[in-house]
Task: structure prediction
Amino acid sequence: MTEPAGPLPPVSPWQWGRVEQIRVENPHVKTLRVTVPDWVPQLPGQHYVVRLTADDGYTASRSYSVGSPPEDAGVVELTVDRLPNGEVSPYLHDELRVGDELELRGPVGGHFVWRGDGPLLLVAGGSGVVPVMAMLRHRRLVEPDVPARLLYSVRSPTELIYGGELGDETTVIFTRQAPAGQRRPAARIGPADLGAVAFDSGPAYLCGSSGFVETAARLLVDAGGYEPGRVRLERYGPTG
Amino acid sequence: MRVSRGFAGRRRGGEPGRLPPGQYDVGADWPVLTAELTPRIDLDRWTMRVDGLVEQPQSWTWGQVRTLAASHFDGDIHCVTTWSKLDTSFAGVSVDTLLAAARPRPEATYVVATSVTGYTTNLPLDDVVAGKAWIVWEYEGRPLPIEHGGPVRMIVPHLYFWKSAKWIESITLLDHDEPGFWEVRGYHDRGDPWREQRYAGD
Result:
């Protein structure tokens, strides 16, 4: 809780971006690539707020992590998990098309951000992989010498996000259904999983559901030797 | 007004004017969005302190704090991440009661609330007096769950809920504003949901 904050990019006023591309990541996750007219480089891990406005002025807004690195200038890629009972994410999945305008502001958040210190441990559950992927992409482009590991927990192989981009630094663990030939049986994250990726120094960034993040952080502190001050958490709430 | 093509919205939230701008009714859920690991708190060693610019710094043990005049809050809470939770009820002690014992000095104008985790948040003194802030340990008649800041947290329900420090251990009175954990990380210094003061500059 004591790490220096450092300067943050200013949060832009509300502005309208344009949807350039929509990519399907898995059956319920899409990535929206949006050009941002008044773009400033975000820190890896930050998010944007999306606001939808109906004919009568009713609005709904939700936060989405940026998956693209700051080197991808003038755009943000927001990876959105479709929550069946949500209000905003079903619109973004089912209604929004390439060429549409989308109102947003950002970048936001000064805690779950990576400023280049290492070695870098990333732990993600499900769609919690989005902000840590921004860190991993930034590292590949700018800080390739910083040691990094990603421990990525998903229910089954079809749940993977950014599956084609995961490299040697990544260990995927499956919690419900593992692919054939996998030595580790499908099971929730445990002490051995974190023990295998822990570094002796450097920060850890954990993102996912509140329960996942709490469990993983507790294991990292109790079994992985991390002091609580090295561990930064981002808990995904109901951002429907 | 520009509209989002094809967006109708769901209109949760019931009576008009009940929700601050940009908020939605989260219903029975109560999201947990804490930035730090949930701490382990030993109530035998925990104390609630009021210090800084006061005539008589105070410290209450867990046993002592619960003997103070009971006070409760019934109403709505609003998180900056856009959820609001309606008709909550919390019980504990009014911050007024704690301050009356410590007697703020005339030059005190701000407070910083500090958690056992090191989390801090700053507030104008005016925002925690006159029945606007509490130290609470019950939620809907039951012990406050640890993930929601139990065994004991502050609540300042008229401001965004990051101002309501979980796992509270002290309130420090100051003669100047000292931005806290989120306030130095891009969030608004005061955080009034009715003025939609989410981020610095709003």
Summary: The longest strand of chain B covers residues 83-94. The mean pLDDT of chain B is 94.
